[in-house]
Amino acid sequence: MSPSRTNRWRHPALQPGWIDRPHQTLGLGDFPLESGEVIRDFEISYATHGIRTPASDNVVLVLTAIGSTHHRLDFLIGPGRPLDSDRHFIICADAIGNGMSTSPSNSRTQPDLSFPRFTIRDMVASQRKLLDALGIRQLVAVVGASMGGMQALQWGVSDPDYMRGIVALVPMARTRSWSVAMNEVARRILMTDPGWPSGPFGGGYDAWAAQTRVITNRTPGALETIAASAVPGAVADAVALARKTGPDPVDWLYQSFAYDAHDVGTTRGMGGDTAAALRTIRARTLLLVPELDLYNPVEDAVEAAALIPNATLVRLGGNAGHAVAAETSTQLADICSAISEFMVRLTA
Fold this sequence. Notes:
Elements: E1 24-32, E2 38-49, E3 59-63, E4 89-93, H1 120-133, E5 139-145, H2 147-158, E6 163-169, H3 177-190, H4 203-217, H5 220-227, H6 234-239, H7 249-261, H8 274-279, E7 284-290, H9 298-307, E8 311-316, H10 332-347
Parallel strand pairs: 3-4, 3-5, 5-6, 6-7, 7-8
Antiparallel strand pairs: 1-2, 2-4
């Protein structure tokens, strides 16, 4: 860790709705990246739920969104929930650069901006190494939201016979220019902070947090609904984002670079052809999107659903936007119903 760093990111205190499970890590030594660079002393962090069968035929892999931890989809996990821990052994893997697995914020040998850039496929490769080490040879499903959904689709292209199903909420198979622009705006705001990159962080961090909350998690209709509450300052309050659960700024920066560069079509052997790559997915695939998403344009998921051979697209109503894939979503019942039915079909 850099000696000048004074705000090293730590796992937030347990939040309402999060499931208290032990954090586990697997050391993978020097981890090679697509770029040819190496993450030194790499460790992947994960948490598990449920009991693994002797045949390891009930395993579900859950993946994290940008800036989030293995708690991201806890609202879907538990007895009787869509990811039923009475039936499945659920592994929630922390993505490279999220502050739990090896990241710019916690690397002692490559701290902060000396950390090598990585990709979504590097995240998937690290998860495959974890599963190999655990002796798991096939998955029931890979599940993720936002960047987690992007990883899930990449899994389907990288290793099409490894899973029976894919659940991708608000995903993209190829990052759209709009999403790149939103990330670039957020990066520019973040890097105006006087403490950049080692901290401590103040006004620039707060401005970045506000921008990302509005752009990625709100729609015009959602803000109109908030304004209609007649509570003074309600819209301004909606912009606020508590620091206590936010990511480390440099970690987010690195994950945003991976986000920007993603395209399943650039998988080895696909020749840059996104459509051809999606056609190679063999797993049953469920894609869930809102009517409007101001972070990951829904057009990408609509196009992906038309190209993946066995895909189902669910369009969710309401004004939640990208935040539709969250515990607070007004469409939570619809999401849970769609995923539950899908998981039952996978295991029937």
